[in-house]
Amino acid sequence: MMAARTFTAVLHKEDDLYVAECPEVGTISQGDTIEEAVANLKEATELYLEEFPISETSRSWLTTFEAAYA
């Protein structure tokens, strides 16, 4: 039975491409559109998880922080 889990996609634009990153797993992909970048990230994440499965007790934490800049 194949397990399913919801992951986060963080996106930003670099030149003409959208870059998508999954912070829970560490996978990164890109695409010409947001939809393509997320679809490519999903595929990359699924391939990664085939090799390195996440156990049911694995947890990720997402937080924020402030950084000073001029």
Secondary structure topology:
Blueprint: E1 10-14, E2 17-22, E3 27-31, H1 34-51
Antiparallel strand pairs: 1-2, 2-3
Could you list some keywords that capture this structure?
70 residues; alpha+beta; 1 helix; 23% strand
Description:
It contains 1 helix and 3 strands. It is of the alpha+beta class. It has a domain of 42 residues. Strand 1 and strand 2 form a beta hairpin. The protein is flat and about 50 Å long. Strands 1-2-3 form a 3-stranded antiparallel beta sheet, covered by helices on one side.
The protein's oligomeric status is: single chain
Helix/strand order, N-terminal first: EEEH
What average pLDDT do the residues reach? Answer: 91
- Helix share, percent: 25-40%
Q: Taking strands numbered 1, 2, ... along the chain, how are they ordered across the largest sheet?
A: 1-2-3
Summarize this entry quickly.
Helix content is 26%, strand content 23%.
